Fold each of these.
Amino acid sequence: MQQRFSNPVLMKELKLRFRTLKSFSGLMFYLFLLFIFVGGFLSVFTQFTGTGFFRPNESFIMFAVISILQMALVMFITPGLTAGAISSEREKQTLNILLTTTQSSTQIIIGKLLSSIAFLILLLIAGLPLYSVVFLFGGVSPVQLTTIFLFYLLTIVAIGSIGIMFSTITKRTIVSMIATYGGMIFLGAVTAFLFFVGISFETFGGMPIPTSGGTPPSSPVTYFWAAINPGALMLTILYPESGTQLANMTGISFPVWITYLIFYFAITVVCLMIAIRKLRANMKHNR
Amino acid sequence: MIEIKGLTKKYGSFLALDHFELTVDEGVVCGFVGANGAGKSTIFSILATLLSPTAGDALINGQSVIRESAEVRKQIGYMPDFFGVYDQLKADEYLDFYGASYGIPAEKRKVLIPELLELVNLTDKRYEYVDLLSRGMKQRLCLARSLIHDPKVLILDEPASGLDPRARIEMRDILRHLKSMGKTILISSHILPELAEMCDEIVVIDSGKLIAHGHVESIQAQLQGDKRIKVKVLNRLADARAFFEEDPFISGLEILENKQEVAFTYKGTDEDQVELLRKALLSNIPIYSLTVEEKDLEDVFMAITKGVDY
Ligand SMILES: Nc1ncnc2c1ncn2[C@@H]1O[C@H](COP(=O)(O)OP(=O)(O)O)[C@@H](O)[C@H]1O
Ligand SMILES: [Mg+2]
């Protein structure tokens, strides 16, 4: 029964991932970027205040910026780690052999996903000590930090699943990379753009003008673009008032994090299901 | 053990396999011979559950490669014609990964891996990185990998291709050993004498069609169709000619005066041939030597595949 839970692909990929110098230098580079940033932030702020002191609300700003920066970094790295998962095996001609083993398609896909995510989790954990600086100065609750980490995880899993899906349905890694980065940029940037377009349409455009004091116009699409944007999500977690503001603007007061959770969970499920079905695409019957 | 029933595969409109029918019994080593593009890899991929046929089915140990592919995978060891290895992985880790992929428990894998490496003469390469091994070693390692779950059936697509003669002989000896272990083996090659040496049966395939199937010797006979017989006579060459000309199975008769020889193409069975000789002796034709020119398998192969470059 232990068999059922062991995942050979995961174990092998982890072994390989942590054996290569590339992973190590990748980790170092990631930490280097974060350190540069935090160091820069600290020096700029202490200069501004001129006192050499660091007040809790400034420490919170740093926390917010680190959190959003980490989200951006991790979103940027995830496609690179997952978009080659299956297609590179196809290119290296190892996929056929893997597919003749008794592992199910589900097992292979999940193994690939988890091994990439494991590395990203390592990055996030390695970045944790930076937060200790923030905690030292106070202003941030551990609950906030935990929430943020859970949403990192959800975002990584969803974008990772997009990468695995493209890697399975395209023949070439390069095509899969482009498609996955496209998906990531859509979620991270295009949604923000669409949100601002929507907002400006409502403010200046032909939308029915809200009579002051009445209920604001309901624009679910605009709300939706904001709700699935990772940056917007971070803001609503860090500054709950921004959530209220969004509700005022779009007339939808449904919590952003719930919409985000549902949407990213749905992306994950759909992408993984497609990947599992298409892994043995040349066979009609498979699981 | 293996039943291929009306197997047909189309790539778009291109017919790569055309109603292929074949039964191979348990413990038989069956060689697939055909030029490049004949459809060997296509059949093997279907049997290995990697490709769905357009029509037809194949049963391995009674289980359908289409409907019961998960079960079939337990029964077969497959070696593709082209394959890669993971870099950064050592030979024993390579086998360990595939062992785990077949659900073999870790303790059992520990025992199994040295045995398999021993079988394919790679014991001393156990801790080497697989991508640094020579081509012949990789082929042997891949063969060891295909054996890890002790499958009853081995499907080996050109296991000796691209190997130097020495590596080839090594591969052949390992295959002989596997045969003695009672495995049912399907093996493809375009190097015919090699296959003839180690196979019980030969399947000749061309343009996706089964051309011939049978024991190595009978295939030879079947494919030859007509054999060339040369009869040397002491004298009375003209009488000999007159005698042989009358036989209905004989055609293409020629007289080689300087060699005192009559040569002809003979289409009769072996029994007919015995009768022919008995009559010849009764007619006092002074035959002192008779040779049957057997075309070798390579010629036959070239003939049936119409000299396709292979
Ligand atoms: N994926 C494919 N798409 C289109 N044609 C293919 C594909 N795979 C094989 N073929 C064609 O099918 C024929 C049989 O190929 P194959 O089974 O590989 O032959 P063999 O292994 O005997 O050399 C060839 O003509 C080949 O070009
Ligand atoms: Mg081939």
Amino acid sequence: MPVVTLFYYALVAFVSVILAVNLLKSRKWERDVLYVIVLLPFLLRLLRLK
Amino acid sequence: MTSRLLAQKIVIIGLGLVLLATSGASFYHSRRLKEPVVLGPGVTAVKQLADYFEPLRGTANNCNVYLLEGRERGATMLVLGGSHPEEPAGRLVAWILAENAVVQKGRLIVILSANRSASTVTRLGGAYPPDFSIVTRWGSQTFRMGDRWTNPLDQWPDPEVYFHYPSRQQLAFVDIRNVNRAWPGRPNGTLTEQTAYGFMELIKREQVDLVIDLHEAELQYPVISTIVTHQRGQDMATIVSMTLTDNEGFKIGTEFSPRTLHGLSHREIGDHSPALSLLFEAPEPFLDATRGITTREQLLTGKDEFVVKAGKHGLLFEKIDEKGWPIDVRVGRHASALLQVAETWGEDHPDKLLVITQVPRYKDVIEKGVGSYLRDPAKAAGRVIYE
Amino acid sequence: MSMFTQAGIVLATMVVVYVVVRAFRISTELAMFSAAVGGALVAGFGFPARHVAEGAATYLDINLIFVTATLFMNLLKESGGVVFVVRSILKRFHRSRALLLVLLTVLLLVPGALTGAGSVTVLVTGSLVAVVLHYMGIPKHRAAALIFLNAGLSAAAPPVSLWAMMTAAGVNMPYVGFFWPLMLPCLVAGLLTSFILGWKGEGSDVTKALEELPTPPAGMAWWRVLLPFVVFGGLVFAGRQWPFSTPIVGLPLMFAAAGLVSYLVSPVRLEFFRIARETVDQLLPLLGTLTCVGILVEIMTLTGARGLLAVTAVTLPMWVVYATLFIVLPASEAVLMWGAAPVIGVPLILLFNNRGLDPIIALAGMSLIWPLGDALPPTAIIGRLTVDVVGYKGSYGKFLRACLVPALIIVVMGTLMVVYSKKLAFLTGL
Ligand SMILES: [Zn+2]
């Protein structure tokens, strides 16, 4: 895998972690749902599914 | 955090994980769906694209190369199916060739998945079905539904603008993953460019005389039901189109490849190799922007009331009625056009013939259906490989 | 049941679900998501997990751009770089209002032109320009309108105009010949907008402004502010100048690199993880909107609702199409954002092509009008973002009214470009 692509997976992993941390700390159900929806494509890419 | 908040959060995350698991499983399986190919009586060797360009080994685009060597020497034709795997007729014709064709004179080289990576992903926002099945006498055979572009899992990221090599023409950034914008390719380029480069190496090494790139197009697209040809193939394409229209009862036109439009097979293969390059377009209403419900049925029947309505308003470049554009018709058109190219070529090159038999023509495919030309992998032990 | 009836029922269901969910004061993003799910259920697809996920992934790369670009800006802000630039601009150019306006317009046009995203303009230079405008005596709702409209034009401006690119790709037309047809109108409209909204200002007092502005941290200097931009610009330039000998970096990584540089050269120590968390928190509505729009477009496509809209759009008489472009384009943008290009743009360009118009000029004209929809509900995404960045706390309607006059000029320019596209075809240089 090219180096740049590896950087991209690292970037996606980084954003996923931030999203997950914010999701765990959020206190509104609406934001929880939105975090889960936004997180979905990041995780799909990280797991190399989509 | 109160216990109620916590419970809420656990439920929401749980639902998210279920969505991740179910959708992920679907993507995982369609990327790995194996499509059987029963090697027909005419197949004399199966190579891989990496045999022509080593860096492709181990990549998603190391597709199979089916060689059908004739009993006598003659011309060599390369058929590219699956440059755009969202256009299934091209791949199905290639399947019919690999499973049925017998070459008497000359040589046929068949590709079923020219951009194999693109056949492992469906278009974002396109709502394509993950796969589709063709009914046969022995059951049915399932194929991956693909996209126009290389799977981002195999080529990521995209640039902000795509510069075509070597013309430097600027193209839309997504088209950097479109193999039919990547010709003649680049050895140290992206996977898509390397794929096109691999085919150029094959064309040179196998001394290919004719390249046929099989496509389908939306009816709102002006280049449809036609043979697009490099300028060196103009005379032949004109005769082929006239002969088909006269003898087989379907209309097919000719278009000349614009000199300023780069990256397309009908332009670059002709410019960068001695081979003549032609591209066939058949109508696929499933690709139209005005299409209605998006399902397997629409993909295969080509029936769509919305597209019919667009046609009534004069917006289409091909006619359509309630009968639609069934896959058998689309496949039949490609099959006949391809055979006619071989025949017309022979008339001009009596010393270098290309004679292909056992391949159905337009009328045969419509009468018997594509499925009757697909062989049962269960009854062909030892002669089955997978795309 | 005919396809028309079925798609009509689905579309109606989506609208009803959307309205009902909004009535419960739930966010636009979740209303769109609910509408998508409702539409799929009514169409008999159940809960189509695969399609929901596929739609959600549509704008993954754009979401990455938003996160990295905003992180970059926030790092720059926290390091004191933004304050430093504002003070310097005010000190040097405060004597000539006209010069200041031209300079600010250019400053606004650049980021969006390079990235194709108006929100990047808002995030990269918008907040900075907002402060200058404030001290030029321009009320916040007018400053927001000025920044929003220029951000929209910047997105339409070349070299990267996503609407033009996506539509061109959709009709298999090369993205060539668009430079001047996009550049000229965007520049003209941008300057007009800035002068209309920014010429009059009351109580402009630069010395007072300089007193009020916080002082940048000791050691802040031009090179510290500019170096990240140079890195970003250098990466863009290298990719364009030597496309075949440099690796493809892509916009997200370019912004990440710029962010990293601004972190490294900051004169004060920055809490990277906190800033990153706040950035994502601030961006959640934007990321959520894009993700949910992706889901909605996918389900609309699946169920035929998208086709119904498209076929209705293209079968109207030409004069109706011309006369409604100013509503149809911004409205489609407001609902679908860039999804408007594949859904509405593609059929319209095919229609225009069919009727003998010049598709490049027509598409450039349309690209001018589309971004106006970014201020309109349901998404209003860039409008909301601008208001946020400018710090305007008043009514959203007042901001929209401030946009009205320049927006009308832009709409008229765009529509005339479509109608007279054939006569303007020389601009393409083809
Ligand atoms: Zn194609």
